[in-house]
Amino acid sequence: MVSETFKASRWTRGNLFFPTVIEITDKAVIRRKRSWFSKDEMSISISRIASVHIKIGMIWSDVLIESSGGTDPFKSHGHKKADAQRIRELIESSQGEIDTGFMEKVTLR
Question: What angle is formed at CA 91 by the lines to CA 2 and CA 17, rounded to 5 degrees?
Fold first, then answer.
């Protein structure tokens, strides 16, 4: 799977100068948030994601990604509706591929 990147809108709260970026790879979900003098980067392994919650508003959507490991959830607001739905779709399909690969290994033994 090729990684996909989703950037929050600059028109939303907290994203004017440095919008939040969510990148989804085949192994992890990465949230990047810059500020004037620093960069905050968090990642959760695809296999450790417990749920993806999307709150769709009139214009923008909020995305909440919770892990099963007890770490703080990813919170990001100001994404397009289609981007939020695509984020959830990519995570769920990647988790399905992991489950399928695991089941193939179990049945081969």
Answer: 75
Cα–Cα dist 85/83, whole Å = 5
DSSP-derived secondary structure letter, 58? S
8 A C-beta contact, residue 103 and residue 83: no
- The answer, yes or no, to whether residue 84 has pLDDT greater than 90, is yes
Amino acid 33: pLDDT: 94
- What is the total count of domains within the chain? 1
Contact 8, 15 (CB under 8 A): yes
* CATH number of the domain where residue 75 is located: 2.30.29.30
Q: Is the dihedral of CA 33, 95, 63, 58 positive or negative?
A: positive
Cα radius of gyration rounded to whole Å, the chain: 15
Task: For residue 85, give its domain range.
Answer: 4-108
Strand order, beta sheet including 49-56:
49-56, 61-67, 74-79
Question: DSSP alpha helices (H): ranges in the chain?
Answer: 81-108
